[in-house]
Each structure stands twice: as structure tokens, then as C-alpha cells.
């Protein structure tokens, strides 16, 4: 199987343990690291000497992506490139996701140009906020003619409600 636009072959390189929950919502760094260690196994026969493009849905704290890159390199990957299917998460989410502080978010720890080397990748790129809006069809109208949208507060800092401190 190939990715249509790039012609890059699509093969599995990780085996995911479905019984380990989302690592980014664990209460502390050590718990997140332990969850990642239990969550992934490498299919090394698919990696040896290859250049890998790993697509991730998002990077919150970076707890998962760094160890995965190390696993891929230890299994023989020649290069590891990360593509993130969301924009960088830079702001806390007060709408129900466990992202309490800006300082915890990987995108705030280093400039974008330095994030790849910080997590051990050869390159790292995010989807833009505009690209995300296009992908999720912004502006669908509900029955009562109120246009809907998507909250992007954790991406751009524009919260849909006033926050009182």
C-alpha cells in the first residue's frame, strides 16, 4: 500500500498494546513514561535501514514521541521524520482535556525549528490551524441556523468563553 500523494509505501512499524490507555492523561511524568514503555513494540523487520515518516495525531507533552523515536532508531531506522496531524498545542485546555499549564506543552518548550532535534527526530512538522479548519469543514449550520465551529483555544489561545481568574 502507498500514500497516494507521496508514493511512500505504508507499512506498520509499531505494534500497539490496546490495553494501555492514553499516556498523555496520566497524572505525572513517571506514569506517562511507564505507559509509553508498555504501549509500543517495534516490528524491526520493517525498519532496518529505512527512512521512516511517523504520523501522530497530536503532540501534547512529548512524552510519547521521544521514546518512540528511540525505539525506531534502536530497531534500525536510518531516519525518523515526524508529521503531526494537528497544529502545535500551545495553550491550556479548560474545556475538559487534561492540559493544565503552558509549561507542560512541548510546543512551548523550544522554538519550532528546534523541536525535531529536541525529540530526536530528523524533522518535525505540524498541520497549520487553517489546514485543520479546512480538514474539519468549518461552518456547518445547525437546524436553528446557528453556525457551528470548532474550538481552537488550545492552539491559538482564543477561548470561546471569558476566563475569570
From TrEMBL:
Entry superkingdom: Eukaryota
Gene3D superfamilies linked: 3.40.50.2020
Gene Ontology molecular function, alphabetical: glycosyltransferase activity
SUPFAM superfamilies noted in UniProt: PRTase-like
Domain Phosphoribosyltransferase, first and last residues per copy: 42-84
Record-linked InterPro entries: PRTase-like (IPR029057), PRTase_dom (IPR000836)
Keyword terms: Glutamine amidotransferase, Glycosyltransferase, Transferase
Identification of the protein by name: Amidophosphoribosyltransferase
Gene that this polypeptide is encoded by: PPAT_1
Amino acid at each position: 500500500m502507498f500514500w497516494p500523494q507521496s508514493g511512500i509505501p505504508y507499512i506498520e512499524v509499531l505494534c500497539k498494546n490496546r490495553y494501555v490507555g492514553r499516556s498523555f492523561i496520566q497524572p505525572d511524568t513517571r506514569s506517562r513514561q511507564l505507559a509509553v514503555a508498555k504501549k509500543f513494540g517495534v516490528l524491526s523487520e520493517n525498519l532496518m535501514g529505512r527512512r521512516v515518516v511517523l504520523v501522530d495525531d497530536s503532540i501534547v507533552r512529548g512524552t510519547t514521541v521521544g521514546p518512540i523515536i528511540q525505539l525506531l532508531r534502536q530497531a534500525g531506522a536510518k531516519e525518523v521524520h515526524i508529521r503531526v496531524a494537528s497544529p502545535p498545542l500551545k495553550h491550556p485546555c479548560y474545556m475538559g482535556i487534561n492540559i493544565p499549564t503552558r509549561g507542560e506543552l512541548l510546543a512551548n518548550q523550544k522554538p519550532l525549528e528546534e523541536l525535531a532535534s529536541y525529540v530526536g527526530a530528523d524533522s518535525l512538522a505540524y498541520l497549520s490551524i487553517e489546514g485543520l479548519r479546512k480538514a474539519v469543514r468549518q461552518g456547518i449550520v445547525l437546524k436553528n441556523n446557528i453556525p457551528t465551529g470548532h474550538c481552537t483555544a488550545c492552539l491559538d489561545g482564543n477561548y470561546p468563553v471569558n476566563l475569570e481568574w
